[in-house]
Specification:
Layout lengths: L8 H16 L23 E6 L2 E2 L4 E4 L2 E7 L5 E3 L9 E5 L6 E4 L6 E5 L24
Length: about 140
């Protein structure tokens, strides 16, 4: 007595695709670092700080990494900031705020807190109002 079992083509193709997908999934693991890194030899550290002017803290001052303007942070109500990326000695932070001179600060080894004071800058608006006649309102009184 012979027994045969047949599956519809759609079911067979679905099972085949599922089996190929399951068998081809193989996560790749990178090699682990076998030499331990001590905290002393690691050079990346988090930098916090405060940005102010002669009158007090500056809300909304920009702090960016020089050469990578997509990484940065804005100061809070107290002028405080925590840079979102770990920095190393030699990196340069750029501090800027409208109406103030831009300031660059080079990160020194083992310095985790910066106190930056921005100086006001003269902002000139170019151009002049030119009018041959005095202003008059077009509204009827």
């Amino acid at each position: 007595m012979k027994t045969s079992f047949t599956l519809p083509r759609k079911t067979l193709s679905a099972i085949t695709v599922l089996m190929i997908a399951l068998l081809s999934y193989h996560p790749i693991h990178a090699q682990k670092n076998t030499t331990p890194v001590s905290n002393e030899s690691r050079q990346d550290f988090t930098v916090k700080g405060n940005v102010s002017d002669e009158n007090g803290p500056l809300l909304g001052a920009s702090v960016t990494l020089k050469g990578n303007s997509t990484v940065g942070v804005v100061t809070d109500d107290n002028g405080a900031f925590t840079f979102p990326k770990a920095l190393k000695a030699g990196d340069v932070l750029v501090f800027s705020f409208l109406g103030y001179e831009m300031k660059e600060v080079k990160i020194q080894k083992n310095v985790n807190f910066l106190k930056v004071v921005l100086e006001t800058d003269l902002v000139e608006i170019l151009g002049a109002l030119e009018s041959n006649e005095p202003y008059s309102s077009k509204r009827n009184h």
